Amino acid sequence: MQQYSLLDKLIICLDKALHLTQGPPHACRPNPADSMHEADLTPQERRHAAGLMRINHVGEVCAQALYQGQALTARAIEIEEKLQHAAREEIDHLAWCQQRLTELNARPSYLNPFWYLGAWLMGMCAGMISDRTSLGFLAETEQQVAAHLANLEKLPLQDKKSRAIVAQMRLEELQHAHTAEQAGAVELPIFVRRSMHFLAQFMKWWAYRF
Ligand SMILES: [Fe+2]
Ligand SMILES: [Fe+2]
After folding, report:
1. 40 Cα: distance to centroid of ligand 2 (angstroms)
2. How would residue 101 be classed by pLDDT, with cut points 50, 70 and 90?
């Protein structure tokens, strides 16, 4: 892997952030919902599904920011490679959520630049502490995201398209958490885990509506 200076890495991060704001990302793998039929949802069900998928989309925007922030400050090359690899996989999640929002005639969160910046700063700070803390932060984030995605029953029962995307994403978030744990993640203190959970609740409230 090529060695970059901190300035190079910062420019790459900025470039990736700008790309995310300029249009839907391109998925490398097929959307798990492609073979599903569109359900006949009532306007209320459609609005609800869109709100939930907007939350998931925000989660993926934050995942991009988090991974980029962490990769910027990672010390070990192999950790940086793992983070960049996971960030590429998360691009598919982001693209699938964005496609589903479009199908539901909905938009992404207006607050995405704000979420991106916040998650990027958090990832960078975690990376500055140590690689193992950064991995611990990542593992905990992925576990909390997977737990959130397990709440499939919140989606309308007949919305098989959204459900297929969420189910696939959940499997992969659990795999990301497992990879981080195997790479040496430390378990974060309980107050940090609780704070992360509280912050996620705050984010979900806003993302569902705006
Ligand atoms: Fe994801
Ligand atoms: Fe993930």
Report:
1. 30
2. very high
